[in-house]
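Appendix B. Raw example, untouched.
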Amino acid sequence: MRYSQKLTIILITLFLFVNCVARDLDKSGSSVTAISLSEDGSNIDIAGVHRNSAKFSYQGIDRLGSFWQVLSKSGELIDADSRVDTASDIYVSDLSIDSMGSNYFTGSLTGRIGAIDRLSHPDARTLGTDCYIESTDSEGSYRWGRVFGGNGNDVCLGIACLPPGSIFVVGAFESPFSIELEDGSVQEIENHGSDDLFACRLDGNGNLEWIKNWGGSGADVAFSIAAANNGFLYLVGYFEDSITLDTIAGDTTKTSMGDRDCFLCKISDDAHIEWLETWGGPERDMAMDVAVDNDGAIYVTGGFGSSVEMNPGPDESLMISNGDKDGFLAKFDENGNCLAFFTWGSSSADESFAVAVSESSIAVTGWFRDSMTLQSAEGENNVIADGESDIFLLNFDRDLNLQWARTWGVGGTFEDIGRDLVIDEDETIYVVGTESGEMHVASFFANGSRSF
C-alpha cells in the first residue's frame, strides 16, 4: 500500500475519535485529537480538527481546519481559537506546552503554506501534503509557523518539549525534500524506501537545529515522542521489512517478523541514538504512543494482530490476540528491557491510541468492537460495545496490574474512539476524542468514578 493510502487511513483513524460522558463541546463534525495540561497544571488545553463548522469556520468554506481551546478542570470553556483557510486543509495531530506557557501544534497541511507560515512563504502552495509546526503564546496569539515537505504526502504526528525551549517533532515523509537549518545551511533529506520516519529539533523561535531520518525499503512511521526528565527522548511507531539505525554501539539492523512491527527508540537531545528495540508477529503491529514516568520507566501502547513475541521476564512469551487486533501496554526500563506486557481485546479489531502516566498509575484509551472480558482489581468485567465501536479507559498500577476499566459509546453506526488523555497531580484523568462526529471531553477521578 502506498503512503498516500496509508496517510488517508491514518487521518481517517485519527478523525474518528471519542466521547466519554455528556460533555458535548460542539456538534458539527469535529474531533479532539490532542490534550495537554497547562504549564501550571491549572487548566487543560485541547486541539483538534473541524470541517464546515458554523462555530469554527467561515460561512461557505468546506475546508478541514484546526482549533485550540482552554478548559477549566470542570470542563468550562475559558479561551478558544481556530485556524481555517479558504485554500488549505489543516490537520492538527498533536499539542505540547512549554514551561513558559507557549503552545506548539503539529500536523499536516495541504494547500496554501501561508495558512501556517505567514512570513516566509505566504502565497506558496504545497506540492502534496506537507508537515507543519506552529506556535502561539498562552493567549493563542500567533508566534511563528514552519512548513516543510516534498512532492508526496508528509505528516508530523507527535511533538514534545524540553526546557529551556527545545521542541522535538516526529512523523513520516514520502519524497525527498530540502530544508534550511538554523545556521542557514540547507540539508537534503532523502528517503530510503516508500516512506521514512523522521525526528527533528527546533528552538523556541522555530529555528531548525537538526533533522534526522531513518528507514528501510518498506514503510516506516514514527507516531509519537516523549521527553524524559534526564533529557533523553523516546520514539515509537512501526516499520516494514527491515530498518537500520546508527546507534552508539554501531549500525543496528532489525527485521520485521511479519507485515509490520513495532519499534521503540531512545535518542539524546542532540540526535545520538542510544538503542533500538522492536517486537511484533506475522500481522500488522503498531506502537502508537509513548510516555515516561519520573523514575525513567517507559510505557508504550498500540495494537497487534494475531500474535506478538515479548520478553517481559527470564523467558520469551507469545501473546495471542483475541481477534483481528488487540490492544497492548508494555513497560520498559531505560536500557530497553521489557519489564511487563499486558494485552486486551475482543473477537474483532481493537486498538489503543494513547498512554499517560502519573505518580502512581498509568492510563490508556482507544477503541474496541463487539465485546471483551477484562479482569481487574474490581473483578471480572464483560463489556459490550453499544455501536460500531466504543471507547475504553483502562487504569493500571506501575506494575501493569489492571485496577479498573471504563467503557462507553452512543450506539448506532458511528465509531467512537478515545484519542488522547492526560493525568493531573490529583490523579484525575481527562480523555478526549469524538463521539458520532462530535467533539468530546471527559474526566474520571482516580477511583474510576466520573468527574464530568
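End of appendix B.
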